[in-house]
Amino acid sequence: MLKDQTGKRYAFFRFFVRVAFRFVKCIAEQSRPVGESLFVVHDCSNCLQNIMYLVVGLGNPGAQYDGTRHNVGFYFLDYLAGRLDLSFSESKWQAATAKTSLWQKNILLMKPGTFMNRSGDAVAPLVHFFKIQTEKIVVIHDDIDVPFGRIKAVSGGGAGGHNGIRSIIEKLGTDAFSRIKIGVGRPVGSMPPDRFVLSLFSGDERAALAERMSAIEEGLRMFVQEGINSSMNVLNRKPLPQP
């Protein structure tokens, strides 16, 4: 009997140590300085003090797609990571990720490594694993129905013909996440939309988009701190003049 009691005490002690370790680890993550990157994503989703926002930038992987209209979501995340001195690393989620403490929140930046029409295959498993609430997800992507240079924030809704958004809706089982749409222009003449979004921006277009990055960042900040309605008030403004 004494042996059984000793074994139970030891098992309880090990359980207590594991719980205490998880708690201390979460406190340490929460207290990281603003802008500091976490290169290893830990599962801290059950800690009450860990509030995670997921920012997904859509695009196609591979150097051949760099600078194309479809990859403007990647473009913004690269801008943000560069400004914050973050580095993306490959993860088990079929995505490049970078985690940071920003605006007093834990934020995970994600660039799916799947092709655009399979974006949900990367996003959904991560969302389910970390138990990220839908209202804390925002997807940044191109939109040919938004005039070039205009940035538009929306709360939920359908895919609007965007295959990446359609895939995420299908895999998550909901369309209630927020989006920040970046207008990339419309095809001229008879060019099919699927070819147009894979075309490169002109030099003038790249310069115009670069000027909008800080505005998108401000809209993202409002989303994180105050919610999507505040982000819409910041971003949903008149488009820039055509380049």
Order of helices and strands: HEEHEEEHEEHEHHH
For the record, the CATH architecture stands as 3-Layer(aba) Sandwich
By helix and strand content, what is the structural category?
alpha/beta
Radius of gyration: 21 Å
Q: How much of the residues is beta strand, in percent?
A: 15-25%
CATH top level label: Alpha Beta
Mean pLDDT figure: 83
Number of domains: 1
Describe the largest sheet: 8 strands, mixed
CATH superfamily: Peptidyl-tRNA hydrolase
- Number of strand segments: 8
Output the number of helix runs: 7
CATH topology: Rossmann fold
Q: Specify the oligomeric state.
A: single chain
Percent of residues in helical segments?
40-55%
What is the straight-line distance between the termini? 83 Å
Give structural notes.
This protein has a single domain (32-235), classed as Rossmann fold, CATH 3.40.50. Strand 3 and strand 4 (95-102) form a beta hairpin. Strands 1, 2, 3, 4, 5, 6, 7 and 8 form an eight-stranded mixed β-sheet that branches. Helix 6 packs antiparallel against helix 7 (228-235). With 243 residues, the chain is α/β, with parallel strands linked by helices. The protein has helices at residues 2-30, 72-84, 119-130, 163-172, 193-196, 203-226, 228-235, and strands spanning 37-38, 52-57, 89-91, 95-102, 105-112, 137-143, 151-155, 178-183. Mean pLDDT is 83; it is low at 23-49.
